[in-house]
Design a protein that fits this description.
The chain has 265 residues and is of the alpha+beta class. The protein has 5 helices and 14 strands. The strands form 5 sheets. It has a 5-stranded mixed β-sheet with strand order 6-14-11-7-10. The radius of gyration is 24 Å and the shape is flat.
């Protein structure tokens, strides 16, 4: 019902001497057990046996079209949960009986993870202020490094940034250069890629993720699977596309996370 993981403290110390026999202080890690629920994401549809037989004589069979559509709905829901713009199920506070679970187990996305870092003063792009956008990203990197997350970083943006990422980045004077805004940001070297999230459409927001397994992983409990069964004497054909997938965002033992969510306010 849930996937458990442990947030571990950073223990130990290194000793400097000439003979290597000095007894160092022993130290054990501290653990904090957390979990995320393994919810089933599914999309259902049905057709009649007659409709299915008729569609088999066409170039675009009904069952194939609807399975593709249902699979997209499941994939879009997984993406929405990962971004943090869709509500997800919570498992927890069950103190007796089957499925006992102490505490609360929730699956969080990048923009609603309680332990994410935040920045609330992004500059609204206008096309004539590329230096301000660059400064925003540099400040985000500074914040990550201050919290001991040293990259490499993935940078996600809302759809509103698309036009400005493609636009020319121009700096005049002795350091004049003409290239796209995306090329300028990628030249920082700490960013492995910049991606627009098609379903991340609200205003101007950025998400910076430290790309390591201690920050984020993907849960793939069950890949998209199609089920089919008959009812009403075989006259009604029922379909379900279902998956157990989602993000696993982790916090360190001290409560910090390598996810930074930046907004304009």
């Amino acid at each position: 019902m849930t996937y458990e993981y442990q947030a571990m403290s950073d223990p130990g110390e290194a000793i400097v001497d000439f003979d290597g026999v000095t007894q160092g202080r022993t130290d054990g890690p501290l653990f904090n057990l957390s979990s995320v629920p393994l919810a089933i994401i599914h999309s259902d549809f049905w057709t009649t046996a007659r409709q299915l037989a008729v569609s088999g004589n066409t170039s675009n069979p009904y069952d194939q079209v609807m399975v593709e559509a249902a699979s997209r709905r499941v994939g879009e829901k997984v993406e929405d949960i990962t971004i943090g713009i869709a509500d997800t199920i919570t498992y927890g506070t069950e103190t007796a009986g089957y499925g006992t679970h102490t505490g609360t187990s929730s699956m969080w996305g990048y923009t609603n993870f309680p332990y994410r870092l935040t920045k609330t003063d992004l500059t609204t792009p206008t096309g004539s202020n590329p230096d301000a956008i660059l400064s925003d990203v540099l400040e985000m990197i500074d914040t990550m490094e201050t919290n001991k997350f040293y990259g490499p970083y993935m940078l996600y943006m809302t759809t509103g940034y698309s036009r400005y990422l493609r636009d020319d980045y121009f700096r005049s004077g002795s350091t004049s250069a003409v290239r796209s805004m995306k090329e300028r940001l990628m030249a920082l070297g700490d960013i492995v890629d910049i991606r627009r999230l098609d379903r991340f459409t609200s205003g101007y927001q950025m998400i910076m993720v430290n790309m390591d397994s201690e920050t984020a992983q993907a849960i793939d409990g069950m890949p998209p699977t199609t089920l089919m069964w008959e009812t009403v004497g075989g006259q009604k054909i029922n379909w379900k596309v279902m998956a157990i997938q989602g993000p696993l965002l982790k916090k360190k033992y001290n409560g910090t996370s390598g996810v930074l969510h930046a907004t304009t306010s």
